[in-house]
Specification:
The chain is α+β, with helices and mostly antiparallel strands. The protein is built from 21 helices and 18 strands. It is globular, with a radius of gyration of 27 Å.
């Protein structure tokens, strides 16, 4: 064993620390990685100089330090084998240590962390129950990052950040059971021999799966073993301005404006936005005041025929209000259309919802106020985040319970999941046809313009533009329509402890829709199902900083993610060959024409049924949406 401790006469961050490192062969990279850590890695992980001694000298050190009145202030922390240690807890501990120093003891095998907030546990003779599999008896270890179940022949390791729900079940003959459901759709039941151990495990899992502080997420303490580059390296791989330039912007009709520099107009928009070329700043600022949360109409995509997809939030129109600047802004967007003076407004919501918002001084565009242009407003009937959240819960219930094929299909229909997929795809296809065939500019919004709007804009662009069907282009699409335009990733995916009503599988629905398109057009995409599953798993793992935060401003200014976390895009760029579709035909550069009939929408079994397989779910319940 090795012992790590600082010079007791100096603070952990003193620049003049003498460093001695030896007997540290049991140090390994986190997350699980077989490569050994060098002394540089150790210093980087703990953000301070360290002195490492063999464990046999520990007691002698204690005896010497007890002679010092300050010795009682030293902290002796035992923690898990570094294979699975979460540096965040260690760093958190070090920040609480008295300035005289700190001491850390590293057992080579025991999974133990003595911390006032966390004490990892290790239980023997735990029985693991998983659907349609034999019961397994093994050892359960709870580390600062993983829940690990091991037998002599197998190992199951679950990231805390992947845990969705934890439930204590009534005691059985096998012990005190805890049911764990993951966000990757795995369900296990752990039968713990002792009731007190079961209660302790329940408490820790609830706490560790929902940290209170966003900076306790794995991304802030992860050191990528596959990259020698600084963490800032991958953050400029998909720059927004480069994507605008790829579209041909600026043009005679559109230009990039810095009116939102320092996010002074809209905090949840990118700092650089694309607006009509002749639009003055006061008009744009006035339009922002007339839109919910300041999310004024701006361009997100310019098609090759000159037609544009624009996006915004709902207007603050109420029952009969109007905004001169907002009307002027929409008129200019209409005049930029190849179909002159025409604008199609796609309100992603059901009309009844849009009408209800009028009572709160919101609503939708009143066509009477736009006499000088031809404006059409249509409602695309996509349900809100609360309906989607309930739907995914019902889908999991359908997958979880034993049932026949007929019963499962009935439960799947009742969940409404495939119906939501259909609604989103139908809206996206309709928008793409307006752009491609009608050559008319389209303005998309829902309520706030960061959930359903992101879904249908990005999918319509995926249908229209073959570039977005490449690995590089798909990243640029997410970077633009999801990250830059302020989808609330932290809240919607429940990364930290917060309002459960804000959680909803909005991005997961988008990935499902992408899979539906790949399923119909497998040769038109450079990537396949494996890549989409990676995106889904990394979304919830929080190993990279890419999906953390809810706006460009928050990522850049508050969290400074490019300075302290790695980008998922760098990882994908390095291992792109792993995710490339061998059947991809780059010559297939046509606009996709998806079949969106009821029978064409399938359940994504590769994602949802990897661990649920009690019934044959390959067939979709055709014609049973209603």
């Amino acid at each position: 064993m090795g012992t790590i401790f600082t010079n007791p006469t100096k603070t952990p961050n003193s620049p003049d620390f003498d460093i001695l490192i030896r007997d540290c062969d049991d140090l390994r990279m986190f997350p699980p990685h077989e490569g050994r850590l060098s002394s540089t890695h150790v210093l980087k992980m703990f953000e301070g100089p360290l002195e490492i001694h063999p464990y046999r000298e520990l007691e002698e050190c204690h005896q010497e330090k007890r002679q010092d009145s300050k010795a009682s202030k030293k902290l002796d922390v035992a923690f898990a084998e570094i294979v699975n240690v979460n540096a965040s807890l260690i760093i958190k501990t070090l920040t609480r240590v008295n300035e005289d120093g700190f001491m850390i003891r590293i057992p080579k095998q025991e999974n133990i962390v003595e911390d006032e907030h966390f004490k990892p546990t290790k239980s023997e003779d735990v029985i693991l129950q998983e659907k349609l599999k034999k019961f397994q008896t093994g050892t359960l270890s709870l580390t600062a990052s993983h829940l690990i179940f091991e037998t002599t022949s197998s190992k199951i390791s679950i990231l805390h950040s992947h845990i969705w729900t934890v439930e204590k079940l009534p005691t059985t003959y096998f012990g005190s059971p805890i049911k764990v459901l993951t966000k990757t759709f795995r369900l296990i039941t752990l039968h713990i021999p002792k009731e007190e151990d079961s209660q302790e495990l329940l408490s820790y899992l609830i706490t560790l799966s929902k940290p209170l502080d966003i900076k306790n997420l794995l991304a802030f303490h992860y050191r990528n073993p596959d990259s020698d580059e600084p963490c800032s390296h991958g953050w400029n791989l998909n720059a927004l301005l480069e994507e605008y330039h790829r579209m041909g912007i600026p043009t005679k009709n559109w230009h990039v404006s810095n009116i939102n520099e320092n996010y002074k107009i809209c905090e949840t928009y990118p700092s650089m936005i694309v607006v009509p070329a002749n639009k003055a700043s006061p008009i744009l600022a006035g339009s922002a005041k007339f839109r919910c949360r300041g999310r004024l109409p701006v361009l997100t995509y310019l098609y090759s025929n000159g037609a544009a997809i624009c996006r915004c939030s709902q207007p603050l129109v109420g029952f009969n209000s109007s905004g001169y600047e907002d009307e002027a802004c929409l008129r200019d967007i209409a005049r930029c259309s190849p179909a002159k003076n025409s604008l199609y407004v796609a309100d992603a919501r059901p009309k009844v919802v849009a009408l209800a918002h009028r009572a709160h001084s919101k609503g939708y565009e009143n066509q009477e106020f736009y006499q000088s242009i031809s404006i059409t407003v249509e409602f695309h009937n996509i349900d809100n985040i609360h309906v989607m959240r309930n739907s995914i819960h019902k889908l999991v219930e359908a997958l979880e319970k034993p049932s026949t094929r007929i019963d499962f299909r009935a439960s799947l229909v009742q969940s409404g999941w495939l119906k939501h997929i259909h609604s989103i795809l139908e809206s996206s296809v309709h928008i793409s046809r307006r752009i491609d065939s009608d050559e008319i500019n389209v303005l998309v919004h829902c309520s706030d313009g960061w959930d359903r709007t992101s879904q249908v804009c990005s999918l319509a662009e995926l249908i229209l533009d073959p570039y977005y069907r490449t690995l590089k282009g798909f990243q640029a699409l997410i970077e633009k329509d999801w990250l830059a335009f302020g989808h609330r990733f932290t809240q919607r995916n429940g990364f930290i402890d917060g309002d459960p009503k804000e959680v909803s599988p909005v991005f997961a629905l988008f990935l499902d829709c992408c899979w539906q398109l790949i399923n119909q057009f497998p040769q038109h995409f450079e990537f396949g199902e494996k890549f989409l599953i990676l995106m889904h798993e990394e979304l919830y793992a929080c190993r990279f900083g890419t999906f953390i935060g809810s706006s460009e401003r928050e990522r850049r200014e508050d969290l400074k993610l490019s300075e302290c976390t790695y980008s998922l895009w760098e990882y994908i760029d390095k291992f792109s060959n792993v995710y490339e579709n061998p059947n991809y035909d780059y010559m297939n550069d046509v606009v996709l024409q998806p079949d969106i009939s009821a029978s064409s929408i399938q359940l994504w079994t590769g994602l949802y049924s990897r661990f649920f397989s009690s019934v044959d779910v390959r067939e979709s319940p055709a014609n049973h949406y209603d």
